[in-house]
Amino acid sequence: DPYSTDPERHPALRINSLKPFNAEPPAEILSDNYITPSAIFFKRNHLPVPQVDPKSYRLQVEGVPGGAPLSLSLEELKTRFPKHTVTATLQCAGNRRSEMNKVKQVKGLNWGIAAISNATWSGARLKDVLLAAGYMPEVVRQTSHVQFEGLDSDVTGTTYGASIPLNKAVSEEGDVLLAYQMNGEDLPADHGYPVRVVVPGTVGARNVKWLGKIIVSEEESSSHWQQNDYKGFSPATDWDTVDFKSAPAIQELPIQSAITQPAEGAVVERSAEEVTVKGYAWSGGGREVVRVDVSLDGGRTWQVAQLQSSEKGQVPAPSPPPGRAWAWKLWELTAPLPPAAQELEIVCKAVDNSYNMQPDSVAPIWNLRGVLSNAWHRVKVTVKE
Ligand code: MTE
Ligand code: MO
User: Candidates 44, 214, 228, 373: which one to mutate for ligand 1, based on the most atoms within 8 Å of Cβ?
Assistant: First the structure.
């Protein structure tokens, strides 16, 4: 069993698949912490977790035009390059896929609303490592890509791989990291020990774990996950007609928000007189969430939620520079219970600083892989007299 050496996991996680391991925290506890504890951070593995010996580990860097191949030990990665820390939210392209499944069957893991988490990542800047491998902007085509290969592989030896555009990889403001720490500790085995890529603002799939190799190329990664997966299509496209070459690989993700409390089907007491609603909101590409609207009546009337961008009780973090809002915002609204309502249909929708908003329903954005599921999130609760 290639999975016999997988690490132990926190018992609170809701398991979507055991081998490979895929799990999300219960939504109600996701919004308890601004920084998600690593043990309950969602886990998305396509393959067995590789056992990597930190002493013999080498990170290979290849393909830099005009440069030379570079091989770095873990120690060299930690000591030769400045350590940089970024708080960034990771979201799987399949987050909230289960809502698409209710419209029409899609292919993929049936994620709820918690295939998203927020952590603090520390490591070397990818840009600094590429510079050490001889990267010179003048001699590299700006349309190039940076490919990443994981050390996890299937029985045929095929490894997990993905790529990002070169301009994101080398941008001063892109904050792409070769991270060796998560939340101030060595990366946990499930999250890519000893080194993973963190591409803030970009879909989870490009944040390659157990990083073995970096290749600068004029082509995108040839991996299945870059070419034939993690792409968006029209609701009109089905498995007989789909042409994966016709759509770009998902990179920056769209605006997203969801309600973590109360849970679907919860009961609120009329005598409580008020209801508290909590959730998260985030947008890709470093766009900052500027507002979250909440409705208690299915979207007829709205109230503005309070946004929280640091751990409760702590001094709020300074606003990120424009285009570098990599971390989610938690939000909360306490409102009087509408008189006479026996049921509440709670709805949330977020707005980012480009005024992108979420679509109001799932059907128009339904796609066969069930990715990019970001419609208004709706939760029904009962009011008990
Ligand atoms: N990297 C490797 N090497 N293997 C993987 O299976 N899964 C990707 C990405 N990086 C994956 C990987 C996907 S689809 C997601 S959503 C994120 O890792 C999940 O990161 P996490 O498990 O740290 O939450
Ligand atoms: Mo993912």
Answer: 44
